[in-house]
Amino acid sequence: MLILAFRRFLSMALIMVIVSFTLFAIFESDKLAVAGKVLGPYSSTEQRELWLENNGYNEPFLERYVTWVGNALTGDFGYSIQYKSPVADVLWPRLANTAILAGLYMAFMIPLSLTLGVIAGMKEGSFQDRAVSVGSVLTTSVPEFASATFFSAIFVFWLGWLPGTSAMTSGFSWAEIFLPVFVLVIYGFGYTARMTRASMAEVMTSHYIRTAVLKGIPYRRVIMRHALRNALIAPFTVIILQLNWLLSGVIVVEVFFAYKGFGKLLLDGALFGDIFVIEACTLVAVFVAVFSQFISDIGYTLLNPRIRFT
């Protein structure tokens, strides 16, 4: 286990080095363009060259890259052009807001999808299996912007139960966070439920499950002790990989409900051309993607010790 973890950690570090170097080369190889973004399109060449000199951009490329990586490791991502403040002061609160949204989503989605998937997979071809499969396909096929519009029309404009935005200007509010979480759960649970259903159905036809049933072991114990653990391997991968989607793929939901999260920050930075915000968001998103894969690999061995990665 320790050797596996060490190998995966080295792989994760190598990927981060490659991605960070590529990112730096794309955004900061043209020094005058960077100065133009910071100082504005009407700045003179002399002003841009003076800014480059004062901010160390006349140093060799590799030296600037090492300095940039060192600053990023300490949380210094530069100065935001749009927000007129250090990028870290904007990034971490937005990342925390998305973490709250993702945590609530996971808290509701995981029990719902696993329960429905197990129920459907226990009796393949039954009415409950058909109902879960149809419901999962139906909810997953509807994009977030469509379901957000539909549920807003019901809960905001028709019933008047919930606010239409989730800006959280007065602090955290369950009423404001409900619709973004609800839309994400409705969209996201179906795929995990179907993966769980397929995995559970395959496990239920295996020889050791049939042997356990024939030996007279209580059916509930067969499901909980023998079938469920092996059936969770595939859904576990799907759930972990959803961390990537929750970090930067929820832009539609965050923009629709005016929720100040990481995805909306990334979109605003891209639209405004805030180069240092884009760099910071990209680094964080790649780190979460690589780290989630690391967690997924370690989780494989915990769920099934017979699985080993080389």
Chart the SSEs and their pairings:
Blueprint: H1 2-28, H2 31-39, H3 45-54, H4 61-73, H5 87-122, H6 127-141, H7 144-158, H8 174-204, H9 207-214, H10 219-231, H11 233-248, H12 251-256, H13 262-272, H14 275-303
Helix pairs in contact: 1-14, 2-3, 5-6, 5-8, 5-11, 6-8, 7-8, 8-10, 8-11, 11-14, 13-14
What would you note in describing this structure?
This is ABC transporter permease subunit. The protein is mainly alpha-helical and 310 residues long. It folds into 2 domains: 72 residues, no CATH class; 217 residues, MetI-like fold (Orthogonal Bundle). The protein is 77% helix and 0% strand. It has 14 helices and no strands.
Sheet of most strands: none
- Give the overall silhouette: flat
Order of helices and strands: HHHHHHHHHHHHHH
Total E-strand runs: 0
Q: Calculate Rg over CA atoms.
A: 24 Å
Subcellular location: Cell membrane
Family: Belongs to the binding-protein-dependent transport system permease family.
GO biological process, one term: transmembrane transport
Domain ABC transmembrane type-1: 95-296
